Amino acid sequence: MFSLPFFSATTWTLIILALTLLLLYGIWPYNFFKKMGVGGPRPLPFVGTMPYSFARGLDFPLECNKKYGDVWGQFEGRSPVLMVADPEMLKVILVKECYSTFTNRRTFAKEIFGPLQDGLTVVVDDRWKRIRSTISPSFTSGRLRQVFPIVERYADRLVKTLDTEHPDQSVDVKKFVGPYSLDVMASASFSIDTDTTVNQDAPLTVHLRNLLKIKFWPLFVIMVLPFTSYLFRLIGFSIMNRASVDYFYNFIKRFKHDHKEDKSGHSDFLQLMIESEIQESDIKDGVEPSKGLTDPEILSQAFIFLFGGYDTTSTTLSYILYNLALNPDAQQTLQQEIDVHFPKDSPVSYEALMNLEYLDNVISESMRLLPTAPLIDRVCKKNIKINGLNIPEGTVVGVPLNNLHRDPRFWSSPERFKPERFSKDNGEDINPYAYMPFGLGPRNCVGMRFALMVMKMVLVRLLQDHNVETCKDTVVPLEFNMIFQPKKPIKLMFSRREL
Ligand code: HEM
What we know:
By secondary structure, the protein is an alpha+beta fold.
């Protein structure tokens, strides 16, 4: 028979007290939303509403939206997240009050983010403003025109591999387009020819693949027990593979050094950053100059470009190809547009590419149905009242953009793939605060124009002489894991067009 250990009454009292205190700790913040008058699913001790998110994925915010309205409260561990799916409130949060109140994203345990901690996605307030205004000129149309020929060259190389390496077989599309995104990113950032399209076992590709295997469990541990972030920091833990991080840091450092030595005038992103280099001592008493990047900041931004640009672009491209394979009519309309403007093998010009309207509509519609980043966030840095709701300083606001993209109040037949809804002449009235695949407001995606150019180029090159089709390995509909990645790879077939 199981028997309780013999402890004195005092010991038992202490044990019960400790357990009660622990439980209280686990549920302490849970009346946060009650006080605000905001509804939401019931959180579980310590883990909050995370188990529901894990089990239901992107359906969970959709279900909450239906049940509680456009504003509700969730708990990531013990941390409250105010979910807002109301376009009028989002206009204030993401646009009007971005600089004054909602400038920053949530940053927890920055130190375990390794080289990303100085990156634009993570930095806050005036430092963010300085870094953003320094790197924004990298993405003007003048700059994009300069890198355009490189993008075209890599798109051509990728399409050539279709006939040699994947004739009539199903292709894991993300793996297929990934090397193109990486080559383009590396060339535009450092003027180097990585050519991972052809050489998939190049150290650069291998290390990048390692880097993308981010360890997510420490983030969940920190959400449940925030104090563990100090422990992770203490032991120098990083969520990314150290050896690969070091490889990239040295790689970027080497290019930075070579660029400085070589006066022949590169036109890449790194060169622009080097030209605006400042010293740590230029930032006096925390007062930020309006522009300029320090040495570690340059390395971090280069890293963010490569790392952030590669994965998002290849994921988005694989969703677009998936939607085109499932919707052959839309694919045919797109091919007709391409045939008119760029008959087979004819060169593609920047202006003409950016003016292909149906192509633009296809990309927009695919990013509506399958946004690559279905959730973004901001932190409220001072008390504010929006639409009668008092939001206290420190509140994290989550924006479930996938909900907005599928809301029948803003879209007709939201589940259907209808690129023409974005058409300038006879499209739907798009609510600009209900559509945000690249985020919204001054803190939106800085690389958006570049990403669009890169995606448009390869789509034109692929569809000029190929069709993309579903095959027996294509999973329909897609299912996503808890970090919003497809559970199974997207597999499609490419066949030669009969022209
Ligand atoms: C299709 C590809 C891409 C998608 C879907 C995408 C999506 C996003 C989203 C949703 C955000 C958050 C915006 C917000 O919070 O309002 C973001 C931020 C960001 N993206 Fe992208 N992105 C893509 C490509 C790129 C590329 C190619 C680069 C770099 C060359 C890049 C660099 C960044 C940076 C640095 C930020 C942070 C901006 C800031 O905090 O000021 N992204 N992106």
